[in-house]
Amino acid sequence: xxxxxxxxxxxxxxxxxxxxxxxxxxxxxxxxxxxxxxxxxxxxxxxxxxxxxxxxxxxxxxxxxxxxxxxxxxxxxxxxxxxxxxxxxxxxxxxxxxxxxxxxxxxxxxxxxxxxxxxxxxxxxxxxxxxxxxxxxx
Length: 138
Prior knowledge:
Blueprint: H1 2-50, E1 55-56, H2 57-66, H3 73-85, E2 89-96, E3 99-106, H4 108-137
Antiparallel strand pairs: 1-3, 2-3
């Protein structure tokens, strides 16, 4: 009888622990996906802003990283190629320290788009801060 009670107790502890861990894992996965979604748009803004000064890919990534915006190469390089294809960046190949590097800088069209995005970001950020202030008060 004692062993049946022990088994029953252990079974429920194990099942309960699994449910908690599984639930936590699902919450973490959901949070990670939402964080990624949230970052996508602001990374474009950060890249355009940083490319007011000329950079090659690696220097851009390191410069952004220094300012707290981590972007892995697998995200950055396709992004800058897409922005160039959209006419927001221009690039040229040059040799530096006996290595060919592709340097990027924002185009005139990119500057116009960046200015509009900054206004949009500022307005959106103000609205989000107001929403967050009400959440803290509740």
